[in-house]
Each structure stands twice: as structure tokens, then as C-alpha cells.
Write a structure and sequence with these properties.
The complex is a heterotrimer. By secondary structure, chain A is an all-alpha fold. Chain A contains 18 helices and no strands. In chain A, helix 3 packs antiparallel against helix 9, helix 4 runs antiparallel to helix 5 and helix 11 runs parallel beside helix 15. In chain A, 62% of the residues are buried. Chain B has a domain of 90 residues: Methane Monooxygenase Hydroxylase, Chain G, domain 1. In chain B, 56% of the residues lie in helices and 0% in strands. Chain C has a single domain, classed as Helix Hairpins (Orthogonal Bundle). In chain C, helix 1 runs antiparallel to helix 2 and helix 2 packs antiparallel against helix 4. The longest helix of chain C has 31 residues. Classes of the chains: A mainly alpha, B mainly alpha, C mainly alpha. Chains in contact: A-B, A-C, B-C.
Chain lengths: 465, 131, 110
């Protein structure tokens, strides 16, 4: 509750800063303050159990420690993102304050979509999350690629919203309780009523669109490639994780009891997502585009939580969001500073910038899922959850095989960083773009990845608080 | 406290819609009468000047389908945004009494967020015509 | 009237919208088709709310059948917000390329 209200207020504040204050650096510091306050206020609510702003929400919000822990992870990732890449947001265009304002509005949508208890708030949360992103994708107004990505994202997003709403309408029609509350959906006795079945299928399609799961992923590489790189970093981590969390919560609360009737569809989507994401990523030359496909591949792993739908999966999705966001934000923060986005551009990074090379390696190892990194523990949680589910054991084997394939394209970058000579005389990264504080923050990111890899209980403990 | 957008009646029969049918018939009848009546009764003088399109007395300036300045789009977009939000006043107007002061405060908050948006676009110069 | 008639009408509109999105090339028409999809949903929601309002089970439960009608308002508002963002994006696109053809969107493929 704190987070929803505060992020909206702070977004408006940032908006007005853009209109009334002519400073280029102030917005960044304001945004960092805002993210820190969000983290703090949400932490207080998680710790005390009572929000500061107590509004009668007619039970439309489910404020549980699990949801708040997830939000805490999101806000921590946002804070890190602002501190690492705030300087690069300033370079996108002239409306710096508005970009941050839009990010705060996205955070408001994230807060709604991870605490919703009715389908109405699910819809509103997802929309509040998406609409600012359409604008952010097109933030680089003169760049045709950015324009194109924005229009494509917008059309696809609006299309999937239509499907989502149709699903909601059918579920409402089939629900004899005549309710939008997700815990009051009457699934009937025995087989599901036809209208609810149609609704469930439409919801799966629409939410797969939003989290870019195959076969509804086709917009993702283009949009992630065309958007300004800072915003790609934001939307491929924080927003995607929030989409997954909303997806899983809906299906666990409302349709968990009849999982047997829709599990096959999820299995198909999971395997297709892993297949397409991993296999296509192998052939990419641009690291930015490779990371876009890798985000599809990681989405396949997160879908295992939807396949498993048990307590371990709940813990796993929070851990996975944290691990994936940390590693991706870290690698993107380095990528933005590079002069050349192709894999050859990384050649000899370790010689010129040893720390950056090391952190990039740790991030990539975490994305692969090498032990001692957060990526390993989170993948381990997901696979355990899928085994505990007890059905279709072969999905677990397929997931492990694809995790091994993913090592190929991540290790290609690591190889370039450590074992290749720079392809041209000019430096890989302009030294003046790498400040001391940036290095310290990157080191902190790497340490966080290692800590989560060794003691995942820290995070899981909060969720059961 | 029951909030209803529409006070739905338990049994809806065709007779309940009878007044609406009467009103529609009356509206159509009146329109037909006025249009054809003025056509039949009115005097007619067809000259070139009279058959021209009426543009408030100003001389006609070519075709209307010409590229329009981008400023019009901006204003149109902002209009759509602010216009449609008014829709939330309808349910409030129906439940005005039942919602008491709490509801009033909510609406004030709602309107003030509009105002914030309006101040923002005003300050940003989105409504400025001359440059 | 039977609820099936409403479902049929709304699904027809919805499918028209989907086909339009997939087939048409003009960005504004694609966008109008999306709006058609949303309006099909609005129609269906209102029809369902009317259907539930007379069913005894819904009356007994805690929630109100008019929820769906409020939902329709929210859909309209969100659609308006989407329209304004979408038109702004299309205008931006037009200023740069002087075209609103979606076939033009292939610069990102490799």
C-alpha cells in the first residue's frame, strides 16, 4: 500500500521537477532518493505489517509478506539501476526528469500488479506498467529504430491487452459468484465451465505476450534492440519479473485447484520458450540482441514456477527475479558504456578495465547458472519446485539441457573479455565514462550476486516473515 | 450500503421500454417534419452564390483536406485524455448521497490529480498557439 | 434476450478486430481494430453483468453485479490513455518517415 501511493506521488513530483526546474543533474539525485525511500517505506510495511497510508481498499489488495518481499527486491533492483545507469538516462534526451517520472509510474504499476486481489487491479496494474514503457521505448525521438520499436511495442501491447480483457470478461461470465476477486472464482464441479476454460486460455495467451514467452515472443528482440539501452535494461529485468509474479499469483490463487486441466499448455509454452530463446541467442552477433534472446530463455526458466505452482516455486520466483535482475542490470550497465555492442567489442575488456571485466564475467556466470552465484541457486530452486510437482519429469531434463546450451553464448562473451586481443587500436571503453563510484557500485553488484548464491535464505526468510 | 451504477429492476419486460419507443418515434417524426416541411414550404432561389459552402461569410479557400499542423494533434490528444476521464463522475453522481464526505474527498483527490496534469501541460507550453 | 446472442455479437466484433490487426497495414487502422476489440469486451461485460444481476447466486454473494459496469469505465479510461500515447507515437513516426505503413517496420530485422 505504501509503495503504490508513494511511487505515484513521487512520479508526479518528478514530473513537476521537469516543468519547473532547469537542472540536468537534479533529477537523477531526486530519483535515487525516491527509490531509496520506496525501498525504505516498503521495508517498514514488510517489517511492521501496517502501512502508513491506510486506505479502505475493499479487500482489493492482498498485502502479504511474500508480495512485499517481491516488491522489496524490485525496489532494490531499481535503486541499483538508478545508481549504476542514472548518468546514462541523462544522455538519452532532454526530458530527463520525465523519464524518471515515467519509471516511477511503472513502479506504481508494478506495485499494483504484484499486490492485486481482483482482476480489475490486475488489468490496471499491467496497463500502468505498460503505457509509460511505450513512451520510454520511443524516448530517443530522432532515432528511427527507437520509433519503430516503440510503435511495434505499442501495437503488440494494446493487442494483448484486448485479449487479456476478453479473458477477464469470459471468466466473469462463467463465474457464478459474479465476482472479479481472484479468490472467489467458482470453478464448478468436475470439469471447468466452457466460459472459464476460454477465459483461462485467453489469459494465458495475453500474459505470455506480456512476459514474452514463445510463441508470443516475436516482438521482444526488436523492441529490446530498438529501445535506448538504459530502458532495455529496466524493462527486461524489473518489468518482466513483475509480469511473471502477476501471472503466477493469478494462476496459483484462482486456477491452482484445476492445474491438471491447463498444465499441458504451460508445458508447451515453457519448452517452446526455452528452445527458441536459447537456440536463437546462439546465432546473435550483437550482445544487446543476444541479451534480448537470453531474456526470453530466462523467461522459460521462470515459467517453470508456473508449471510447478508450489511453495518452493514461490520462493524460487522471488529469488530468480533478484538473481536475474542483478545480473542483467550489471551486464547492461557495462554494455551501455561500450563503444561497440557486438561481441568483438568486448575483446580485451579485462586487460583495459580489469574490474569491469571481472564483474561482467560474474554476471554472465550467474546468468548461466554456475554454482556459487545467485543464478545457480535460483535455477536450483526452480528445478526442485518442478520435481516436487511430481508430473512430467522430462520437463526438468529439458530445462537442464537448455541451461547447458545457454553456457555456449554466455561463455563466448567471457572468452572475448579474457582471451582475445582488442580488434582495433581505440579503447573498448572511454575511460572518462567509468567513474570511481561506478566501479564501487559494480563491485557491490557482484558481491550481492555471490551473497545470494551462497545464502539465499536471507531473501527467502523475509518472504516467510 | 449498496452501490449500483444502474438501479437494475428485477423483471424487465417489454412494456418498460414503451416510453423510450414513444420518444424515439417522436424525435424521428419531428425531424422528418421539419426537414421536409422547410423544403416544401420555403422559398427557393438557386444562384451560384447561394450554392456555395457557407464559411461564415469568408471567401472559400480551396479544399479542406490539407495537411494540418502538428499542434492540432497535440491539442486533440490532450482533449481525448481529459475528456474521457469525466466518465467517472457518472457513477459518483448516482451514488452522491450514499458516499457522503468520504466519496467527496475521493473525487476532490481525483480532480486535483487532473489539475496537476493540467498545470504540467500548461507549464510545458503544450497549449501555446503562437510562437 | 438470450446471453448467447450477446456473446456471438461480441465475439464477432472481437474477431473482426483481431483479423484487422493481423491483416491491415495502416498503423491507424490497426489501432482502430484494437479499439474495436476493447469495445467488444465492453459490450460483453455489460451483458454479463445484466445476466448475473438476475441470478440468485450472485445476489447472495458479497459482491455486486454492477462491478462489471465499473470495469467498463476503467477500460474506457485506459483505452483513452492508450489512444493518446499511441497517436503521439504514430505522429512521431510520421514526422520521421512520412509514412504510417506498418510494413515499414522492418529496419530492426538484423
Amino acid at each position: 500500500m505504501n509503495a503504490i501511493i508513494f511511487s505515484a506521488i513521487w512520479g508526479v513530483l518528478m514530473m513537476f521537477t521537469g516543468a519547473f526546474v532547469q537542472s540536468k543533474t537534479l533529477p537523477k539525485y531526486l530519483a535515487i532518493t525516491g527509490a531509496a525511500l520506496l525501498f525504505l517505506l516498503n521495508g517498514i510495511e514488510l517489517y511492521n505489517g501496517t502501512p502508513i497510508f491506510n486506505i479502505n481498499g475493499m479487500n482489493m489488495l492482498a498485502i502479504t509478506s511474500m508480495n512485499l518481499t517481491f516488491l522489496e527486491v524490485i525496489f532494490a533492483a531499481t535503486l541499483l539501476f538508478f545508481m549504476l545507469s542514472g548518468r546514462d538516462v541523462e544522455r538519452v534526451g532532454e526530458h530527463v526528469s520525465e523519464y524518471f517520472a515515467l519509471i516511477f509510474f511503472v513502479l506504481c504499476g508494478v506495485s499494483l500488479s504484484s499486490t492485486y486481489n481482483t482482476l480489475l487491479l490486475l488489468f490496471l496494474g499491467i496497463e500502468i506498467m505498460s503505457i509509460p514503457l511505450y513512451v520510454l521505448t520511443g524516448a530517443d525521438k530522432r532515432n528511427l529504430k527507437s520509433n519503430e520499436a516503440s510503435l511495434k511495442y505499442f501495437l503488440m501491447g494494446a493487442f494483448s491487452t484486448g485479449i487479456l480483457l476478453m479473458g477477464i470478461a469470459f471468466i466473469y461470465g462463467g463465474n457464478t459468484n459474479a465476482s472479479f476477486y481472484i479468490d472467489q472464482i467458482h470453478l464448478g464441479v468436475g470439469k471447468m465451465p466452457v466460459m472459464i476454460t476460454v477465459g483461462v486460455v485467453l489469459l494465458i495467451i495475453a500474459l505470455s505476450f506480456k512476459v514474452s514467452a514463445a510463441p508470443f515472443h516475436f516482438w521482444t528482440p526488436d523492441v529490446y534492440d530498438g529501445a535506448p539501452t538504459v530502458f532495455t535494461s529496466f524493462m527486461s529485468t524489473i518489468v518482466k519479473a513483475a509480469g511473471f509474479f502477476a501471472f503466477i499469483r493469478l494462476f496459483k490463487t484462482s486456477f491452482g485447484p484445476v492445474q491438471g486441466q491447463w498444465q499441458n499448455l504451460i508445458v508447451f509454452i515453457t519448452v517452446a520458450t526455452m528452445l527458441i530463446g536459447n537456440v536463437t541467442a546462439v546465432f546473435q552477433q550483437s550482445v544487446k540482441r543476444m541479451l534480448a534472446y537470453s531474456s526470453i530463455a530466462q523467461a522459460g526458466f521462470m515459467l517453470l514456477a508456473l508449471f510447478a505452482l508450489n511453495q518452493t516455486a514461490d520462493d524460487g520466483i522471488i529469488l530468480y527475479s533478484a538473481a536475474y535482475s542483478l545480473a542483467t542490470i550489471g551486464i547492461f550497465a557495462i554494455l551501455i558504456k561500450m563503444n561497440d555492442y557486438t561481441i568483438e567489442g568486448f575483446n580485451g575488456l579485462a586487460k583495459q578495465q580489469p574490474l569491469l571485466g571481472l564483474v561482467a564475467t560474474i554476471c554472465l556466470l550467474s546468468l548461466t547458472g554456475i554454482p556459487l552465484t545467485a543464478g545457480f541457486t535460483s535455477k536450483f530452486f526452480m528445478l526442485t519446485a518442478a520435481v516436487e510437482n511430481g508430473h512430467k519429469f522430462w520437463v526438468v531434463i529439458v530445462a537442464v539441457i537448455f541451461a547447458a546450451i545457454s553456457a555456449y553464448y554466455y561463455f563466448r562473451v567471457i572468452q572475448a573479455i579474457y582471451f582475445k586481443e582488442p580488434s582495433s587500436a581505440e579503447p573498448v571503453i572511454d575511460a572518462e565514462r567509468v567513474s570511481g563510484s561506478f566501479k564501487i557500485l559494480l563491485a557491490i553488484t557482484a558481491i550481492l550476486i555471490l551473497i545470494l548464491g551462497i545464502y539465499p535464505e536471507i531473501l527467502i526468510g523475509w518472504a516467510h516473515h | 450500503m449498496d452501490f449500483f451504477f444502474l438501479q437494475v429492476q428485477a423483471q424487465n419486460s417489454a412494456e418498460n421500454y414503451f416510453p423510450i419507443v414513444i420518444q424515439i418515434l417522436f424525435a424521428i417524426g419531428l425531424l422528418t417534419l421539419m426537414i421536409f416541411g422547410s423544403d416544401l414550404l420555403g422559398p427557393k432561389r438557386k444562384t451560384a452564390d447561394k450554392l456555395q459552402n457557407f464559411e461564415s461569410g469568408i471567401e472559400i479557400k480551396g479544399n479542406a483536406r490539407q495537411p494540418i499542423a502538428i499542434k492540432y494533434f497535440l491539442v486533440a490528444i490532450l482533449f481525448v485524455l481529459f475528456d474521457v476521464e469525466v466518465i467517472f463522475f457518472y457513477p459518483y453522481a448516482i451514488n452522491f448521497r450514499a458516499l457522503k464526505w468520504e466519496g467527496f474527498l475521493a473525487v476532490v483527490l481525483f480532480v486535483s490529480s487532473f489539475l496537476a496534469g493540467f498545470i504540467y501541460i500548461f507549464k510545458k507550453g503544450a497549449l501555446k498557439w503562437e510562437e | 434476450m438470450d446471453i448467447k446472442a450477446y456473446i456471438a455479437l461480441s465475439l464477432t466484433l472481437f474477431t473482426t478486430g483481431i483479423i484487422g490487426v493481423l491483416v491491415r497495414r495502416n498503423a491507424i487502422i490497426v489501432f482502430m481494430c484494437v479499439e474495436l476489440m476493447l469495445n467488444a469486451v465492453n459490450l460483453l461485460l455489460v451483458a454479463f453483468s445484466k445476466m448475473h444481476a438476475v441470478s440468485p447466486a450472485a445476489k447472495a454473494s458479497l459482491t455486486y453485479a454492477s462491478d462489471a459496469q465499473i470495469f467498463v469505465f476503467f477500460i474506457m479510461i485506459v483505452a483513452a490513455a492508450e489512444v493518446s500515447v499511441g497517436l503521439a507515437i504514430i505522429v512521431m513516426m510520421y514526422r520521421n518517415t512520412h509514412s504510417i505503413d506498418v510494413n515499414f517496420l522492418n529496419r530492426l530485422k538484423n
